Amino acid sequence: MAGSVKGDGTEEFKGLRITSLDDDSDEEEEQKEPDVAMDDDDEEEEDEEARNSVILGFVKKPKKSRSLLRHFFPSKAGGVPAWLDPENLPSGRSCCCDICGEPLQFVLQVYAPEEKESAFHRTLFVFMCTSMACLRRDQHEQWKCQRDEPSRSVKVFRCQLPHDNPFYSSEPPKKDSTEDPLMAGAALCNWCGTWKGSKRCTGCRKTLYCSEKHWVKHSRSGHEHDCQRLRIQLADSSSANSETTSAVVLKGKYKVVFSWEEFWVGNLTALSRLVASNNLWPEYKIIQEPESSYDTEMPDESVGTNSLISSNRMDDGLMSIADNFTGDGDRKSWASFHVRIALAPEQILRYCRSFGAKPLWPVSSGRPSTADIPKCSYCSGPMCFEFQIMPQLLFYFNVKNDVDSLDWATIAVYTCEASCDASVVYKEEFAWVQLS
Ligand SMILES: [Zn+2]
Ligand SMILES: [Zn+2]
Ligand SMILES: [Zn+2]
Ligand SMILES: [Zn+2]
């Protein structure tokens, strides 16, 4: 895909931009009228316009996992987030499911910079609770967003940085660069590798966790052993003369004592293994294609062996949606959803930030009206649709197809239209989930 070239010659990384690439965006600007976005009337006309500007996202195993590090400004799904601002991470209640209190799991991030200087870099991060019970409760909560503080199990954060910032070079990264990020960033939780490690293990007083829940999980699955070893080591180094008897005994038991540094290096490599051991979702790079490039093609035979499986999974999902039809609206909606998706059945993301863009709803019931989308909680300005996550992602995340497994028909993400600059570094945006 040809990248757009900015004045400073940053083609490579501007090539990764997901923006509304349509040529007639100026024209659309002039026609700006509020509140047409959700009306059914001119749906078909708008569909045609939207089709020209939708960018589809697909997942791909990265050749080198380095390419997903934050200084390459990746769009990625699964694994751990590549935090754009690596220091001022979300904290407290923001990191947890409001329903069950578990720390949220990273779903995906989309690098989508804007023209304005303060959003030269701009990334949106989506997290959710892995419990389907919570997502079902969340269904009721999302309608309340205009009225009171809702309890959500899906959260979206927007982070943006100007061209000149303390974390990244003003030069775009070279494709195969082996350079590390300029600085280390905040220490992360030893269990999830996702949230800030703000609590210390009470045993070794060394390893960090985002929450007591993750400390307990880590202790149950092996940290206890390391913890003891670290305690001995600490006793050794802090008071060579006053070693307690128990420490001596323990020392005899664990002959091999790693140096603190080795331990940390080990932990850094362990970060990449977190995915397998700690139930994180598998990690992918998100690549993009304009939907318009699929318009004239037959449903795809060129995508390779995965396509059969994934379209089966999708058909299952669609059939269960079809079973729940409650009226003609749903039937019509389902039909047009099916036709659009069939052009590229493996899409996991549909991105379209042009004015008036709407999500492609699998069913017409349970859609938000304009009034159900809250105002930006920072600038009080309007929020607009930016992208939606498709259920195909569940297939790539190896989520089972059981009754209680996580499932959704679509997750639509709305963001502040102005990409406002509030003092909060990670600003909470809004997600609307439609279940199948
Ligand atoms: Zn939950
Ligand atoms: Zn954690
Ligand atoms: Zn410990
Ligand atoms: Zn705003």
Automatic annotation (TrEMBL):
<protein>
    <recommendedName>
        <fullName>MYND-type domain-containing protein</fullName>
    </recommendedName>
</protein>
<keyword id="KW-0863">Zinc-finger</keyword>
<dbReference type="GO" id="GO:0008270">
    <property type="term" value="F:zinc ion binding"/>
</dbReference>
<dbReference type="GO" id="GO:0005737">
    <property type="term" value="C:cytoplasm"/>
</dbReference>
<dbReference type="Pfam" id="PF04194">
    <property type="entry name" value="PDCD2_C"/>
</dbReference>
<keyword id="KW-0862">Zinc</keyword>
<dbReference type="InterPro" id="IPR007320">
    <property type="entry name" value="PDCD2_C"/>
</dbReference>
<keyword id="KW-0479">Metal-binding</keyword>
<feature type="domain" description="MYND-type">
    <location>
        <begin position="189"/>
        <end position="227"/>
    </location>
</feature>
<feature type="compositionally biased region" description="Acidic residues">
    <location>
        <begin position="21"/>
        <end position="49"/>
    </location>
</feature>
<feature type="region of interest" description="Disordered">
    <location>
        <begin position="1"/>
        <end position="52"/>
    </location>
</feature>
<dbReference type="InterPro" id="IPR002893">
    <property type="entry name" value="Znf_MYND"/>
</dbReference>
